[in-house]
Amino acid sequence: MTTNKVLLVDGMALLFRGFFATSFRGNFMYNSQGVPTNGVYQFLRYLTDAIHTFEPSHVVCCWDMGSKTFRTEMYDGYKANRDEPPVELIPQFDLVKQVVESFDIPNIGLENFEADDCMGTLANMYSPENDVFILSGDQDLLQLVKENIRVIIMRKGQGNYEVFDKENFYEKKALTPAQIIDLKGLMGDSSDNYPGVKGIGEKTALKLLQEFGTVDDLIDNMEKLPKGVQNKLQADMDMLYLSRNLAEIKCDVPIACDLEASKWNFKEEKVITELDRLEWKHVDRLLNPLKNKPSISF
After folding, report:
1. Which of 13, 32, 89, 263 has minimal CB crowding within 10 Å?
2. Nearest Cα to 154, choosing from 132, 139, 176?
3. pLDDT tier at 295, thresholds 50, 70, 90
C-alpha cells in the first residue's frame, strides 16, 4: 500500500510559462533594486495551486542546468532553434531557486542532463513504494507514465490540469507511454528541433505504430509498407534512430534525493521572510491555497 504522494515539479517549465504569461503586457514586477520578479511570482502561483490541488506529502523541484547536454553532443541542432532567454528573465533563474528553498523543497539538477532526465530518474526511484505525480506542460514526459507514476499536464488557464495515468493513457493518446518515444523518432519534434523521418507526420506515425507496435518491428516488416513510406524510412534511417534516442528520457542519471529531505512541511514565517525581499504586496494571498482543502481529490 503506497501512502506517500511525491510531486516532482518541472521548474523551468513553470518559470518560463509564468514569465511569458505576464511579460506580454510588459508587467515585469521590478522591485526597488530594479530586479524583475514576474516569472517567480507566477511560478509561485502555479506551484501553490498544484500543491493545493494534489496534496503531496513530498515535493521536489527539478531544473535544467544550462543549454549544453549530452543531447546537444549527439546532435548539434538539438534545441538550436531556441532564442536566448529574455534579459528580464535571466536574474529570475537564481531568484526562483531561493524561493523554492525557502519552502524547504529540494532543488535538483545535474549538468549535462535535462530536468526531464532528473524527473525520470527520481520517478523510477520513488515509484516502487510511493505514488509519483510529475507536474509540467511538456508532453515529452508522458513516456514516463506507468504503475504509480502519473503525469500532470498544465493546460491553458491556472488550475486547469490534465492527468495521465496507466489506466486512461491509451484512451487519451491511442498509444502506450513507451510508444511516445517511437512516435517522436518517426515524426520528430519541431520545438526541440530534431526532424525524425522527412515526410512522416503525426498521423502517419500514429498509424504505423498502432499497426506494428514499435519502430524495430516496423523496420522488420518493411516489405508490408507502402512503397512511399518504405522510401522515406530508408532515406532517413539514421535520423529515425537518432531522433528516437534524443526523445528518450534517461531514467538512470547519477542523482539522488532522499525522500525524507523532500517532506512537505513549509514554515510560513521562513517563506514570508524570503518573499518580503521581493517586495510583493499581499504575500499572504499567495500562500492562501496552501491553507485550504481542495474541492476534488486525485
Report:
1. 32
2. 139
3. low
